[in-house]
Amino acid sequence: xxxxxxxxxxxxxxxxxxxxxxxxxxxxxxxxxxxxxxxxxxxxxxxxxxxxxxxxxxxxxxxxxxxxxxxxxxxxxxxxxxxxxxxxxxxxxxxxxxxxxxxxxxxxxxxxxxxxxxxxxxxxxxxxxxxxxxxxxxxxxxxxxxxxxxxxxxxxxxxxxxxxxxxxxxxxxxxxxxxxxxxxxxxxxxxxxxxxxxxxxxxxxxxxxxxxxxxxxxxxxxxxxxxxxxxxxxxxxxxxxxxxxxxxxxxxxxxxxxxxxxxxxxxxxxxxxxxxxxxxxxxxxxxxxxxxxxxxxxxxxxxxxxxxxxxxxxxxxxxxxxxxxxxxxxxxxxxxxxxxxxxxxxxxxxxxxxxxxxxxxxxxxxxxxxxxxxxxxxxxxxxxxxxxxxxxxxxxxxxxxxxxxxxxxxxxxx
Amino acid sequence: xxxxxxxxxxxxxxxxxxxxxxxxxxxxxxxxxxxxxxxxxxxxxxxxxxxxxxxx
Lengths: 414, 56
Hints:
heterodimer, A: mainly alpha, 19 helices, disordered C terminus, B: mainly alpha, about 55% helix
């Protein structure tokens, strides 16, 4: 009789877990979690079954962005696989734990897990496992580098520790590429090319970034993976910006925009419009820049993205100032001020305040008949290096001191 | 005159605007353990063991 009960229990646990598995496979992770939880409640004496449940629960929580829970279950899985001496299971648990720790910013622990994953895979001559561990390794070092990079520096100009971490990421991605090429795993190749491209971009190797993203694009097209194709176009656009090839950047952003619309991804569509607005600003085609920034603004408003809205207003203010539409510029500068106050963006608020006061001055001057004031003012503020008025120059705290218009950035962009 | 100078200048966005950390990463790859796979293997194992016991 007790064996009958145990049989019923095992069957029930298994049925629940299989339903959880089916739900996760179709992407319904929330419902999947409930079934796995129920399966654990019923319990099982088969530790392989329990390991599979823990692992899938960990992955479901990972997909649901509940990383604390994901960590908990991948830990359980690791402990269990070690206890039963299931080395291949341990390798998988280590890999998943590593990915989770990476997302949580615990990079040193993540590295230990990646190494364990790689060691076991190597021990069993499991090339697929080795390749996957190398990809994870690359991702951990990429994330580590990015987390240390801060927001002020530009690609290629990060502190040494950041460059070291990114350099390691590139090495792991290259090692992964060698293996997945051997295995003929094109999908894996595509992913690695994408992240390698991003790593080269941050390292400031923009030509190499372009070459990698071109490869990524090729694979995405082979698979008809439009989301990956769109990512590649965006990343290519970014790299061309830093190469100073703005026309090329615009072409790639436009393809990204088309795909974002096809995929009905509004947030990504907004991002593409914003990038296009900035690119046309660099090309000094301010009418087009305004067109795209307005498109970005409308989507940001639809999505209730106040930060995006503020950024759009700031950009629109600058573009209108460039065209001499000071009234319009004032409208957007005031809106930028209002939003940055609301979102608690202190540097945005200061920028906006100065833009408003500069514009007030210009608008005051344009109503004034006293031309000598205008020309005197121009000597002070506008006449240096052929041109750059103060308005709109102050994007950030660094530019707060009375700007004597060093044209460093200008040269870079032109 | 002021306007000419304006239009050839200004509003060059800081490069920060572009990269921020806007690189778009590829998805993470998680390792998977599947119950269905495990049971199909287990089933084969039990078939094999029942074959062995028949042979004995």
